[in-house]
Amino acid sequence: MRIGVFVCQCGTNIASTVDTERVAQEVKKLPDVVYTTTYMYTCSEPGQQEIQRAIEEHNLQGVVVAACSPRMHEPTFRRAVEKAGLNRYMFEMANIREHVSWVSNDREANTKKAIELVRMAVAKLRFNQPLFPSRVAINKRVMVIGGGVAGIQAALDCADAGLDVVLVERRTSIGGKMAQLDKTFPTIDCSSCILGPKMVDVAQKENITLHAYSEIESVSGYVGNFAVRVRKKATYVDWKACTGCGVCMEKCPSRKVPDEFNEGLSFTRAINIPFPQAIPKKATINRSYCIYFTKGKCGICAKVCPAKAIRYDMTDEVVTEEVGAIIVATGYDLFDPSAYGEYGAGQYRDVITGIQYERILSASGPFGGHIKRPSDGREPKDVVFIACVGSRDASVGRPYCSGVCCMYIAKQAILTKDHIPNSRSYVFYMDIRSPAKNYDEFVRRAQEEYGVQYIRGRVGKIYPRGDRLVVQGMDTLLGIQVEVEADLVVLATGIEASRGARELAEKLHISYDQYGFFMENHPKLRPVETNTAGIYLAGVCQGPKDIPASVAQGSAAAAKVLALFARDTIETSPQVASVTERACIACGKCIEVCPYGAIRWKELKGGVRKAEVITTVCQGCGLCNATCPPKAIQLQHATDNQILAEIEELCA
Amino acid sequence: MKDNFSRTVAYYPGCSVEGTAKEFDESTREIFRVLNVALREIPDWNCCGSTPSHIYDPLLSAAISGRNLAIAERMGFYEVMTPCPGCLKALKGSIEVFNNPLKRKDLLNILDMPFYGRIKAVSVVQFLVEDVGIEEIERCVLFPLEGITIVPYYGCLLTRPPKSAQFDDPEQPTSLDRILEAIGATVPHFPFKTECCGATYGVVRKDIVGRLTGRILEMALDLGADAIAVACPLCQQNLDLRQEQIERYRGRSFKISVPYITQLIGLSFGIDPKKLGWHRLAADPQKLLTRFDKLSKKRPTEPPTIR
Amino acid sequence: MEEREKTKNNTEMRILGFLCNWCSYGGADTAGVSRLKQPTDLRIIRIPCTGRMDPLFAFKALISGADGVLVSGCHPKDCHYSVGNLYARRRFEVLKDFLPFLGIESDRFHYTWVSASEGQRWQEVVTEFSRRIHELGRNPGFDMNTNLVNSEAR
Question: Are residues B63 and B155 both part of a single domain?
Answer without folding.
Answer: no
